[in-house]
Specification:
Layout lengths: L2 H29 L2 H6 L19 E5 L5 E5 L11 E3 L5 E4 L8 H9 L10 H18 L8 H28 L6 E7 L4 E4 L4 E10 L3 E6 L2 E2 L9 E6 L2 E6 L8 E9 L2 E12 L24 E5 L5 E4 L4 E10 L8 E6 L2 E2 L6 E6 L2 E6 L8 E9 L2 E12 L13 E6 L5 E7 L11 E8 L5 E3 L9 E5 L6 E10 L2 E2 L9 E2 L3 H7 L27 E8 L3 E7 L10 E8 L6 E2 L10 E5 L6 E10 L2 E5 L6 E2 L14 E6 L2 E5 L11 E8 L6 E2 L9 E4 L7 E10 L2 E2 L9 E2 L11 E8 L4 E6 L11 E10 L2 E2 L3 E2 L9 E4 L7 E10 L2 E2 L9 E2 L12 E6 L5 E7 L11 E8 L8 E2 L9 E5 L6 E10 L2 E2 L9 E2 L10 E4 L5 E6 L9 E5 L2 E2 L6 E6 L2 E6 L8 E7 L6 E6 L1 H15 L5 E9 L5 E7 ...
Parallel strand pairs: 6-13, 15-22, 97-104
Antiparallel strand pairs: 1-2, 3-4, 5-7, 7-11, 8-9, 8-12, 10-11, 12-13, 14-16, 16-20, 17-18, 17-21, 19-20, 21-22, 23-24, 24-27, 25-26, 25-28, 28-29, 28-30, 31-32, 32-35, 33-34, 33-36, 36-37, 36-38, 39-40, 40-43, 41-42, 41-44, 44-45, 44-46, 47-48, 48-52, 49-50, 49-51, 49-53, 53-54, 53-55, 56-57, ...
Helix pairs in contact: 3-4
Amino acid sequence: MSASVQVSQMKRHLHHQRQEKRQHKEKEQHYESSSQQSTKSSVSKQTFSTYKTTSHRVKTSVKTEKGQEVVRLSPLPKRAKRTYLAMDLDKEVIGYVIPVFRANHEEVRSLMEAREEDVTEEGINYVAMRNLFVREAREALEVRVEKKTRTTHIRESAERLELNKTLEEWTEFRKKMNPDSLMHAPEFIGRPRGQTVWEGQTITLHCTMAGWPRPRIAWYKNNVLIDAKTHSEKYSVESSYNMHSLQIKNCDFYDTAQYRVSALNVKGEISSVATIVVKRFQDGEEGGPLESKAYGPEHGIIFKTTILDKFEVAFGREGETLSLGCTVIVYPTVKKYQPEAMWYRDSEPLKESKWVHSHWSGQRATLTLVHLNKEDEGMYTLRINTTSGYETFSAYVFVRDAEGEVKGVPGAPLDVCCLDANKDYVVVTWKQPAVEGSSTILGYYVDRCEVGTHHWAQCNDSPVKYARFPVTGLVEGRSYVFRVRALNKAGVSRASRISETVVAMDPYDRARLRGPSAPWTGMIKFTEEDHTVGEIPGEPVDVVVTEATKSYVVLAWKPPIQRGHEGVMYFIEKCITGTDTWQRVNTSMPVKSPRFALFDLAEGKSYSFRVRCCNSAGVGEASGATTAITVGDMLDLPSAPGTPVVTRNTSTSVVVSWAASKEVKHLVGYYIEYSEVGTDVWIPCNNKPVKQTRFVCHGLTSETTCEFRVKALNAAGYSLSSSPSESVLVRAAVSVPAQPTAVTLLEAHKDTMVLGWSEPANDGGGAIRGYFVDYRTVKGKAVSQWHELNLQALTTTSYKVENLKEKVVYQFQVRAMNMAGVSKGSLPSAPLECKEWTLTVPGAPVGLHFLEVRDSSVVVLWEAPAFDGRTPVNGYYLDMKEAQAPEKGWKAVHEKANESKYMKVSGLEAGTSYVFRVRAQNLAGVGRPSAVSGPVLAETLPGTKEVCVEVDDDGVISMVFECSEMSEGSEFVWSKNYQTITDTSRLTIINEKGRTRVIFNNPSLEDLGIFSCVVTNTDGISSSFALAEEDLKRLLDISHEHKFPVIPFKNEMAMELQEKGRVRFWTQVEKFTKDCKLDYVFNDVIITQGGKYNMNFDKSTGIIEMFMDSLEVMDEGTFTFNLVDGKAKGTTSYVLIGEEFKELQKKSQFERAEWLRKQGPHFIKYLDFTVTPKCDVLLKCTVGNVQAETEIIWSKNSIEICAGDEAARKLEKKDGVLTFNIGKCVIEQDVQADTEETEPPAEDESLLPSPRSKITKEDAGIYEVFLKDKRGQDVSRFDLTNEGYKAVMNELFRVIANSSSQIEVLSTEHGIILYSAVTYYHQDQRVGWLHKDAKISASERVKSGVTGEQLWLKINEPTERDKGKYTMDVFDGKDGVKRVFDLSGRAWEEAFEEFQRLKAAAIAERNRARVIGGLPDVVAIQEGKSLNLTGNVCGDPTPEVSWTKNERELVSDERYLLKFEHGKFASITINAVSRADSGKYALVVKNKYGTEAGVFTVSVYNPEDEEKEGGGK
C-alpha cells in the first residue's frame, strides 16, 4: 500500500475515534446529576483538570467616579515567554500544565507556521509527532488567571477532594459499563535508564510498554528522530511484544545526548528520557559545545568540507580591529544549500554584538573583532557544519596591552562581571592584568555609570587589593555598568572594558520578569495572604558572613517568614567580641537588599553581626548573631607554581608546562612570562589567564635564547613567580622528513634494476641519515603487499635491486630517515617490467630540482642519466610548460644543447606554476625525457635575500648571504657552478648565526663563475652571484683603495681670527681611530706645543686646532696637518702669503688693540644719534667695564659740559647707556600723548603759541664723551655739523612725516578745513598740498599752514570746483610721505552742508539784537533825585526796544521817560525817584534773529533812615 493511502486511512481512523469519544462524553454528562455538573470547574478540554492558583497576575479593585467597583488584572508582558499556566474559561489561572513531552517551543511555533510539506513525504512517526507538537502549542496558548484568598482556597480544596472522590467512583463504574474499557493509553512498565560508558563500547536502552491498541514506538536523540534503517551501521531498533530496545554500536564521544522513547496510540501518548554519557580514554579534556552532533546525510549526498587559506596565530593590541577568515570549499555543490559557519572562543560560541561581527560570503567565512580587548584573547575556532558532519580549524589570538599614557602604569583589568545583584547592592569582580607595570599593583578603583548617562562615578575612595568589591548605594530599578582601573606608584591604568548591564532590583522580581519555568513533575501552588496592616516583621534568618577581607565584610541573610503585606528593610548591628554592646551600623538609612557590606572595620579585631527588619509598623526583633569573625583576608594568595619545563615547537613558539600551585583556593588562572637571556625584562606571553598547566607561547624571536616563569592568581592577588625555567633556544623541533620524490628506473638487466629518486624537499630539521626501499609485484590491477628490500639504510639516492624475476612487473617506493624517525613512503613508481635494455641513446636524466625561485626566473638542476647509451652524453635539452597546460604546451627553453647540468630559466610570469623535463643527447641521438618535475610556483618568498659582495676595510673581498628562517639543523652549502665546493685553498667559508661569508683568499681569473648558496631544511631558500671578469676588476680596484686608505676630512683646513687678534687654524676628521697620530708642520718643519703655538686634537669630535697669539712677518708661509692612522694617511694645508697675510696681520693687530682697550672703561657702542617716536633727538652711547671711580665727561666743541650748566640737565645715564637729549631744556611743556584726541586748528592762528623746535642750528657742534680711570681711558665723538646735522634733521623729518595721521575734514562758518595731526612739527620741514595732483598755490581763499602739531589747508567759501582728491606731501628727508583725502561724493556733501549751516548760524549771531553796553549791574540812588540810564544796542534789522521793571513792561509817561535814538541808544529817565522805584529793571531788544535783555538793579535809599539805623546799633 502506498504511503499516501496509509496516511489518508490514518486520518479517517483518527477522525472516527474523535467522534466516538465526543459522543461517549455526551452520554456521560447525561448520567451525571445537575448538582455534580454545577460543582465541576469549567476547564477547557485541552488542559489538565488540576486545580492550582497563582499570583502572577494580581487582581485589584478600582472604584470609578460613579462609585462602581471594577476588578482589573495587571497586563501580561507583551514579550513574555510561553507559559505553561492552565486557565479556565474565565481566564483564571488554576495551575501548571505539564506536557508529556517537552521540546523547543520556538521550533514548535515555526513548525506550526511553516508550509506543510507534501503529505506523501510524511511517515507515521512524523504525523504523530506533529500532532503532539500542535496540541502542546494550543495548550500553552490558553492561559487563565485566578486570585484566591487563603480562606477561599481551603474551602474549595475540601470541596474539590469530595468531588474527586465522587468522580473516581463514577469513573470506575463507567469503565465497567463501557464497551471500550479494554482500550487505554500507553504506559511504562519499565523505563529506559541512563548510562555512562567508555568510547568504543556498545550500549542498549530497554523499556517495557503497555497499552491498547498496541502503541507505536519512536526513538529520538536530542529531539531528532533516529532513522535506524538509514544508519544501520550505528543504530539497531527491536520491538518484541511489549519489550523495546535501542542499540548504539561503537559509541564515541558525540553519542553523548538525551535519548527519548515516545509511545503513541489513539488513547494518548507518553515518553521517557534517558541520558547517555560517553567518556574518552584520553587524558584530554572532554569536548565542549564545539563537539556537537554530526548530522546524517541528506538525500544520499555526502558532503566533503575543506578549509583553505587558514588564519594563523594572530597578535593584536587593545583598541585595534582584527579580522580572521578562512576559505571553505564544500563538495559537491548543491543549489540552495548553505553550510553553517559557527565561531567559538575557548569552546564558547560567539554571538553577534557591537564587538563581534561574523560574515559568510560565498566561500569565505570571516570574523571581525572590533576594538580589541584582552577579553578577546583565546583559542578561536571556525566550525563548518553540514548534514554529513563538520570540519573545524583553530588558532590562538593574542591581545597585547595598549600603550599607556603614563609610562610604567599597569595594564587594564579584564573580565569585569556583576554578581549577586539586589535592590541597592551588587558585587563587582574582575581579573588582574598580566602587566603590573614598573611597580606592584597597589589596588583597584571601581567606577560605575548609570545607563543613559556618560558620567562615571568612583565607587571606592581608597584602592582595594581584592579583585572583588561590593558596591552599595544603588538606586532600585536603575541600570548600571561598571569598569575597573588598576593603580601602582606610576599612576592609574586604562579602564577595563565595561561590564554587562545590571539592573538594581530584587532577585525574585528579576526571576518573575523572566517568566515562569514549569517543572517536569509536581505541582506548584501560589496563594496570597490576607492584607495585614500594621504588622511588625519577624526576625531575619540564616545570617552569615559570605565574604571577609581587610577592607570589608559582606553579610547575607534570608527575609523573615512573617513580614506582612508590605516590603521590609533592614538594620545591621555589630558587636566586638568580648563585649555586650551592639552598635547599629546603618543608622541613617535602612537597606533594602538582604545583603550588606561593612567597611571601616578594624583589621585583626573579632566581630559578631545581627540584623533587624523594619517597616512602617516598626522595627522587629534582632536575628541570631553570627559566629565571631576576625577581620582579615579569608582568601590567601596562591602558592608559586612549579618550575616550568619548556620544549621546542616551531621557529617562533615553544610549549611551556608546569606543575599546578599546591596551595590555592578559587584559582583564576596562570600568567606566563618570558625573558631573553642577558636581559632583565620579563614580557607576558598571555594577557588573559589560562587554567590549564600547559600553554603554547607564540610570537617569540627565532634563534633567541629565552627562559620562562609562571605565576598564579586568584581574587586575593598574584602568587610569587615560579623559578625560571632552563634557558631554551627558540628553534623548530626536529620532525620526520618529507617523502622522497621522483622514483624512476635508471637502468635494467635481466634480473636487476637500478632505481633513482630525489631527496625530500624538507629534511625535518635533521640531516637525512638514509633511505629504505620497498617493492611489490603488479599483475593487472592486482598488487601485492609492500616488502622491504634493504635492512640497512642507504646513504645514496640510487639503489641496485638484484635477484628479481625477469619479465615480472614491479613497483617501488622509498622512505627517508633522520634522527626523528622514518618518513612516509613516496608515491609508488610507475609499474616497471624487469627486462634488459637495448637502447643506443642515453637514458632519462634524473633528480630534477630547483633553486633560486623568483618571480621571473628559476634555476633548474638535474643529474646525468644512469645509462649513457653507446656514446657518452654531450648535452642536454630543457623543456617547460605551464602546469595546467596540456601536453601540447611543452616548449624548448633553448635551441643549442647545454653541456652543463643546470640552467637558469628567465622570462617567467609571476604567480604561475611551471613544470620541467630534461632530455640527454649523445652521438646516437636524443634520449627520452626525464620524469616531469613537480610544479614550481614563480614567486619570490617574502624576506628573500640575495648574495651580496663586500669589500671590508682591509680590502678583503667576500660574498655574504643571510637567512632569518633557519631552523635547527639548517646549514649553508656553497657551490661553484652548482658543484659543492670541496677545495678550500682559494676560498674561506665562515658561518655565523643566520649569516655565511665566503672570503676570496687570492682573487684572480680562476675565481670566475657562478657562486650559489643553499640553506638546507628550508623551503628551498637559495641565492647565487655570477662573478664576471668586469666585476672582478671593479672589486680589485675597491680592494686597493681599502688596503691603502686615505683619512677623510669633513672639511679642509680653515683659518679664523679670534679675540685678542688670536689666529686659529682648524679642521675636522671624519673617520679615524684612537691610535691616530698627528704632526703640525710649518714650511715643511714640524712645530711643537709651546711658545707662540698652542695645539689641540679632540678625538671625541675629530676637531684639530692650532692657535697663534699674534702674527709676525716670519709667520708667512704654509701650515699643514699630517695624520697617520694605521695604514691610512691624511694631509690638509693652508697657504697664508702675500696680501692675504698682510690683511690678516692688520686685522690681528686691530683685534689685539681692541682687546687691550676693553680692559678698562670703554665704549661698547660709540656715540650716535637717534630720534624717538616723540621726536626727541638723542645722542646715545653704551659703555662697559665702568666702575664707580670712572669719570664720564661730556663736551661740546671741546668745551666741557659742567654740572651747573643748563646742558647738564640734558644728560642721563641708565643701565650703561649714556644719553644727551638735545631739546630737553627747550621744551618747557609736555607734548600731548599720541592717544589724546586731536583738536581742530584754531580760527585765529595769531592767538596760538608758535611751535618750539626740539633742535636748531644752535645745537650743531662736535660732541665728545670721555671715559677714564686708573685702568685706562676711551673717547667717542659725534660730529653734529654739516652732514651730521643734515642726517639728524632728515631722520627727524622722517619720524614727523610718518607720525602724521590720516587727513580729516572740518567745516566752519568760513569754509572747509582739511587737517592732519603730527607728533611734532619743525619749522624747517616742508609741507605741500595738492588738489587733483596739482600743486595748490596760496591765496586769500585757499591757504595752508601749521598750528601747533596740526597741518591744515583752509578753503574759504568753497564751491563745486573745490571737490576732488587732496594730497598732503610731508617731506621725510627723501621722497616724502603722502596722505590722501577724497573730498567728493558723500564727504563733500556732508562737509559743504555743515559749512552752510555754520555760516547761516554765524550770520544770525552777528545780526542778532543785542545789548552791547552802557548799563550798570546795580544803581544806588538817593530818594528824590532823578535817574537817567542809556544802553547801547545793535542789530540788523534795527531791533525793537522795551523796558521792564520786575518783569513788567514800562510805558513812557510822566514818571518814566523812555527814548530810542538813532537805532543805537535806548534811554530811561525817572524823575524824583522814591523807594517804590527800587527793583529789577531790564532793557529788552528784539529782532528776527533773536532777543536779548540787559538786566540791572535799582536801589533807592534815604540817608536819614540810614543814620537812625546806625545810631540805634
